[in-house]
């Protein structure tokens, strides 16, 4: 750095240097804080082993986490768990931990709680309600109605028409793709209340 002669010019240069360092320090602090926020998502944005985002903070967030917890007494090992009352499915790995959970829209005909196995699969078909569907994973039949998981090609998940007997448990397309990968024929399916 060049040395200035004269008292007041040296003070001005030193003052500008201090001010410049303060501005640089402030920007470095801001960048560091932004990085910390990016690495540590808040509770409102973090997700449990599910595809569902958490809700806002407070009791609502706690209730959301609790509602997505794998039901007790829902079997062991790799499986699919379907909770009728919660309208929710869990994909459980070999270690017994939920790898993914998601909401579903139940069919008008539901299976009784119990243990089943995937019996057949179809990549693309027309559902019993006339809607084109994909990733169909069937696991039982109730009174002549085949029950299985599927996703509508148009992404819709409307409540089924109670006047028609249908067996399709509808899920979002991305959830259907995940279930399809998780559930070859013979995969256990546990249905709970």
UniProtKB/TrEMBL annotation:
Region called Disordered, residue ranges: 37-74
Gene Ontology MF terms: transferase activity
Compositional bias segments (type: Low complexity): 43-58
Highest taxon listed in the record's lineage: Bacteria
Record protein name field: L,D-transpeptidase
Organism: Streptomyces cacaoi
